[in-house]
Amino acid sequence: MAISLSTAFTLFIGLAALSKGSDECVARDFGHGSVVCECNSTHCDSIGSDTLPPLGQFVSFTSSKAGRRLHRGQGWVQKGSTGLALRLTIIPYQKYQRIRGFGGAMTDSAAINILSLSPRTQDQLLRQYFSTQGIGYSVVRVPMASCDFSTRLYTYADSAGDYDLGNFTLAPEDTKMKIPLLQRAQALSPRPLSLLASAWSAPAWLKTNDALTGKGCLKGKPGGKEHKTWAKYYIRFLEEYAKHNLSFWAMTTGNEPSAGLLSNYSFQALGFTAEEQRDWVGLDLGPALHTSSHPQTHLLILDDNRLLLPHWAKVVLSDVHAGRYVHGVGVHWYLNNLVPAEISLGTTHHLYPEYYLFGTEACAGWSATDRGVKLGSWERAEQYAHNIIEDLNHYVVGWTDWNLALDQGGGPNWVKNFVDSTIIVDQSRDHFYKQPTFYSMAHFSKFLWEGSQRVGVSFSQKTKLESSAFVRHDGSVVLIILNRSLSEVQFEVWDPVVGFISSSAPAQSLLTLAWNTH
Questions:
Q1: Rounded Cα gap, residues 13 and 9, in angstroms
Q2: Which of these, 326, 452, 338, lies nearest to 392 by C-alpha position?
Q3: Among candidates 164, 57, 162, 110, which has minimal Cα distance to 515?
């Protein structure tokens, strides 16, 4: 069949890159506005080391709808102004939150897709996320038992009446898939991974509807045997994973507790009101975790959409019994357009600054009007970058994508809730595709090391640019800029410590600038 000139050019560039064994993106255009980068067992584009040039120079990384993927540039810091009308000024004395990390979720589906590849291609995929040549993922969310991105319904304690959890057993999905992959990811990572556990549903026999799905809460009341058994289930999960040398930085109180209050909810859920969660944490889960062999594991409440804030935080964190066991608040990105970030995230931070805010789930392709996988969608990359910048500018300390890998249909998913992912696996060709959203994540995860502190940025005039700035522990500065407009924007950056940087953000692009200050 006939192919277009653009498609032919893309194939030519891809074959050239493969033949040279270079680190360049092998671009493929599937007709969704931009390109993906294709990888296999022997080739994948790589950003490499994030080492900065010496004092007096800066480095830039650009990704764009036009096809750039972390394109590296370098320039000199000037002593005087360049005279450009738009100036972004770094304000280092305005100090805000410190970064915890960025990452994605090792769901059953993600594990199935990764393991569907040949061993060498699996290693290639894991390196893209976790190795020093990868994009710096340090957070991995791990579902406790099944969720919609599983191929079956199960928990670890499906024996009715087993209040002592004598029959608690990890599933084959854990022992044969997720745990081995997590161990491999940890072996590749230059730093300990921050594992984050979330449960979707309690065993059916502990629930009011006797089912894992649909509208249902825990039987009894906080302090009662059902609530204490559910808290014990959390501890047993930590203990079983510890046997495989995997420890958890944090656990959430349960995925989307509001979903379990909805009639006819289609997949796994466990309903809690804020008041019920407060009492369960204060009477059961908090004390159980505190007296367990894993008291250092953090506890995050909510793990649901930010529109529930600040009300949810007020109910739980204002309670002296519950609040003392909690470290942070987990938020999902769905329905964000229904409530401004300042009203939800900002107000929560100002009310409870001692508790951190953490993004625990996001994905593209989830809405009925924009469903499933779109290979090469730049619009979705912009959605990611916009939300991450907005979250960071409202005190969020990290951001977790959903599935680490899905197939070309956006699954598997037992309830057919198909969505998109930053990496899409093509098992038949033993290839995988890195989506534009992968590079969106990279502009943050690669450069915002744990401990990086957000600082102020001011604009000399109104602009369409969105930005967030950070000082890393070695004193270097990272400035991330999103340009969603259809035209290039020229600007200068003034860092009072070192001088002026002249730069430009191409149309529909994401730009990371970084430089040393001493």
A1: 6
A2: 452
A3: 57
Cα torsion at 308, 311, 314, 319 (round to 10°)?
Answer: -80
Residue 15: how many CB atoms within 10 A of its CB?
Answer: 11
Distance between first and last Cα of the chain: 58
Strand partners, 302: 330
Instruction: Please identify which of the residues 24, 226, 276, 361 carries the catalytic annotation.
Output: 361
Which residue type, as a one-letter code, is found at position 221? K
397 and 298 in contact (C-beta within 8 Å)? no
Using alpha carbons, select from 175, 108, 190 the residue that is nearest to residue 146.
Answer: 108
- How many other C-beta atoms are found inside a 10 Å radius of the C-beta of residue 83? 9
Pick the CATH number of 100-445 from 3.40.50.880, 1.20.1250.20, 3.20.20.80, 3.30.70.100: 3.20.20.80
450 is catalytic: no
Please answer whether residues 48 and 133 qualify as being in contact, where contact means their C-beta atoms are separated by less than 8 angstroms.
yes
SS (H, E, C) 266-328: CCECCECCHHHHHHHHHHHHHHHHHCCCCCCCEEEEEEEEHHHCCHHHHHHHCCHHHHCCCCE
pTM for the complete prediction? Answer: 0.95
361 is catalytic: yes
Pairing status of strand 27-29 against strand 35-39: antiparallel
For the chain, 518 residues long, give each residue's pLDDT as a single digit of tens.
444 444 444 444 444 444 434 589 999 999 999 999 999 999 999 988 888 999 999 999 999 999 999 999 999 999 999 999 999 999 999 999 999 999 999 999 999 999 999 999 999 999 999 999 999 999 999 999 999 999 999 999 999 999 999 999 999 999 999 999 999 999 999 999 999 999 999 999 999 999 999 999 999 999 999 999 999 999 999 999 999 999 999 999 999 999 999 988 999 999 999 999 999 999 999 999 999 999 999 999 999 999 999 999 999 999 999 999 999 999 999 998 899 999 999 999 999 999 999 999 999 999 989 999 999 999 999 999 999 999 999 999 999 999 999 999 999 999 999 999 999 999 999 999 999 999 999 999 999 999 999 999 999 999 999 999 999 999 999 999 999 999 999 999 999 999 999 999 999 999 999 999 99
424 has which bridge partners?
406, 433
* Nearest of 198, 219, 206 to residue 163 by alpha carbon: 206
Active-site residue among 226, 256, 276, 492?
A: 256
- What are 87's two structure tokens? 């100036």
Annotated domain spans of the chain: 5-97+453-515, 100-445
**What count of other Cβ atoms lies within 10 Å of the Cβ of residue 54?**
7
Report the CATH architecture of 5-97+453-515.
Answer: Sandwich (2.60)
